[in-house]
Amino acid sequence: MAEASISAFSARLTGSPAEKAVGDPRALAMRAVHRAASELRRGTPVLLDGGGESLILAAAETVGARGLAELAEAALAAPVLLLSASRAAAVLARPVSAPASPEEVPVALRLSPALLAPDSLRSLADPVAEQLLPESPQIVPAPGFAEALPPAAIALAKIGRLLPALVAAPASPAIAARLGLLSVPVDAVLAYPLSAASSLARVAEARVPLEDAPEARITAFRAADGGIEHLAILVGSPETAEAPLCRIHSECFTGDLLGSLRCDCGPQLRGAIARMAAEPGGGVLLYLAQEGRGIGLVNKLRAYTLQDSGLDTLDANRALGYGADERDFRVAATMLEALGIPRIRLLTNNPDKLAGLAACGINVAGRVSHLFAANGVNDGYLQTKKARFGHLMG
Ligand SMILES: Nc1nc2c(ncn2[C@@H]2O[C@H](COP(=O)(O)OP(=O)(O)OP(=O)(O)O)[C@@H](O)[C@H]2O)c(=O)[nH]1
Ligand SMILES: [Zn+2]
After folding, report:
1. Are 248 and 336 in contact (CB under 8 A)?
2. What ligand 1 atom has the least distance to the C-alpha of 250?
């Protein structure tokens, strides 16, 4: 890009998210969620404030003795373990979802004092760390829990890329505050994915000639919570093309950077850029910070271990308590809008991406197949994409 257009771009850069947060209720709500997720990641309990009722929560994966003691002090009743229905079914070795209770409704397990300890909690949360439990925990209904609280608790753990398993108890906000524990409003948690997507702002741009595309620029987008950045790689001048080629690529550390043979991400990434470079109108690749279809790298590694013991990619996600695909493509819609690209031809084999983008108002003029041959290691993975995700193979 010429220097003149770089400075024009600089003029379009919005202020830093921190500046925008002053007095902005949405930014403040996002900040509370981001902080709460960080607290859970470091093993500290947080209060999920439901207005009338509140829950004190700690992540089963990270909580230690001190966190459990703090949780017990703020709790008004015995804690339970909140698990996604799929993980609860695995722990109990039987189905738990009644037809009336959909998969998204978490299950509360009552735990004996022996199970309410850091090591057992980690085993209950993590199928990879699972040991033979000394006793069977019992399913209990969640008495006194406002309906929105358990799903929001699970959502908060997922925002923190933690295993969706939490120790939870009805709690006193006053005691939690006295203990210095952070409080997060339930509405802020539920609104977070949309707020994060719609608050994305351009924060930097640079020309980065690539091996396969000498005319390339990278534009970075950041959400108002200061979370991980998403990137747009612009090849040529897609902003001026009528419906440029577009690839919406979810980050894959193992495939994109290391050349892992377990998936097809590396060839898809490089292949998309090379293809855009060969197009007269260029193209745009959105590189989204949605590692592992939105479950994060650590959980993807856990999923790989489960796949090595026989599960496919979809069932491995579910065994961890995650959905098959946790990505939210609204971030892509915001980025394309900010880039001034309202109409695209999408490089994908995934019909859900087409539907997801259309639902966000992106005009997808057509799909361009983006298939790469199996490599002898990822054959089963590609087969599962076709059989269980409905991927189009042509
Ligand atoms: N959870 C999980 N994620 C995986 C696995 N293998 C690859 N991924 C992730 O899947 C994402 C790749 O998705 P995309 O390249 O967008 O592919 P797609 O949605 O299947 O569809 P296409 O557009 O057709 O490629 C990356 O974030 C990878 O880290 C796996 O076994 N488990
Ligand atoms: Zn991959």
Report:
1. no
2. 27
